[in-house]
Amino acid sequence: MNNRTETLIPKIGVITDVRIDTPDIKTFRVVTPDGVKPFIHRPGQCAMLSVPGVGEAMFSITSSPTNEEYMEFSIKKCGCVTDWLHQAEPGQQITIRGPYGKPFPVDDEFASKNLLFIAGGVGLAPLRSVINYCRHYRDRYGRIDIVYGSRSKDDLLDYREIIEEWSKDENVHVHLTIDREQEGWDGHVGFVPNYVKELGFDTDKTVILCGPPIMIKFTLDGLYALGFDKTQIYTTLEMRMKCGIGKCGRCNVGSRYICKDGPVFRFDELDELPDEY
Amino acid sequence: MRKCSLESIDRVFAAINADASLYLPVDGDDGKAVYTKWEDGVKWSGALNTVRSPKSFFFPQMEDLVQFRTEGKTIEVIDPRKESEDFVVFGVRACDAKSFEVLDRVFLVDPVDSYYASRREHGVIVTVACTRPVETCFCKTFGIDPAEPAGDVSVWKTDSELFWQSNTEKGEKLLEKLADLTEECTDEAVAAQKEKINSVMSRLPLADLKADAFGAGKTMKFFDAPEWDELSESCIACGTCTYVCPTCQCYDIKDFNTGNGVIRFRCWDSCMYSEFTKMSAGQPRLTQKERFRQRFMHKLVYYPEKNGGLFSCVGCGRCLSRCPISMNIVKVMKTIGGKADE
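The joint structure predicted for all components is written out below.
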């Protein structure tokens, strides 16, 4: 079958840099053996990474499409493939295929809107791609607010980029919080849902929300209390996936395949699906 | 339409087999029909109700996707696929033929699964109108006519003759090859045979089963039905229903370390298994009830919703006769669907 392209057959990716972000999250920079970006993607799309003999898993692409040199993945150590990746060193080859899934509507629904990003823990990984895309095309969007929280200061992903780049941008407002008081932290302390309520945002915003299920649940309650509507709030879902192309059946919820019809959904779209994600 | 005598069938099979591997149902020692590769001396079982469906000719239970050779930090990716060879599957029932339409709408939609597509291109399906529908049959529930099977070629069998009709270009080519062994004929005998089949079907116990209660837009109506508890209670999650099902298409992808490299293969999987949706981060279907519900909701609601109302069940009845606890889609339809009428 020489003349066929097959999406289940991956390309080779080379890890060129490993950044330690938190005690359990590392960010991996990946290029092809020729040193270029593996493929073009849109903000919110994912890729299948694999370690032959260990397994393959789906990860959100955390770098922005506007980065033309390489791709980045922020990966939490929590299973076979991620354990293996966490001990990988620069120069290590892995396999990569994608891009998969429906991206965030950055050029349609998001255009000219005020954007409110809300993330918890490693939930910032898929949003970083969107945030940096919107920062790159800054004049296409209104005010940008970013609420980001984690267990502790040490668990904040992309902390350096947030402080040195995002916080310094004009009309980008970063609101960081950690769960408990910590020495050397003079910022906000408290859970993300409460912080969102305290900040009391106007409803003239489109919300992009990602984090642990419990955080999403309480943040949604808070947003509704502030007067936000489901049609203004987007999220990205996580399910077990094997093929990434809507065929293996694993991520099927209702009539949707999360890998292909998602992972990005608006909350009113989720109302039509059974609560199995 | 063309015909041949039943006595000449082995010569016909030899002619088909001359340039494409031929597979057909053959009775095993236990009297159950199993698809077998034809060779001289292999006798076609008149039976069409094979233990396994013919889906494995196109979507094998296990197949290699890709191979890797690793050395130090480097990886070599090897495409293990060879050009598919032509083959013919003879003796496919109308219900099983319909299952390919269900599978096509999964594997042939963008992005196309080229492993499946290649076999579909190289495979010729010869259906045979049902001769012996049994009490577990309910294809008519899903609008399938057992007397009018689809496929590249449709065949009707009477006591002494076989009648052949081509439906596609591939089918036309096959019949051309059999021109010397068959003769042009009218379809009178076939019409009589069709009537006979339908008369048998209408007397079967599931003849009146209806699927009208199900289909697109019924998720919320059935998802929280309390009956799922009782229906799923005795399910032992063996997955037999999935493996004998002609339309179940879920699969797993796994790596096998050969000692000399890695083979990444796919194999059939079942939504009835607890591992199916288990992630490091959690498990969206915690109990067997949720996994059981997924299988039936997918066949009766989710799949039709995505595919213009087409059900992902063809009424072949295999799961009715194979389930070790006698639970099946008919019981689910009667219990859940019956409730909707109230």
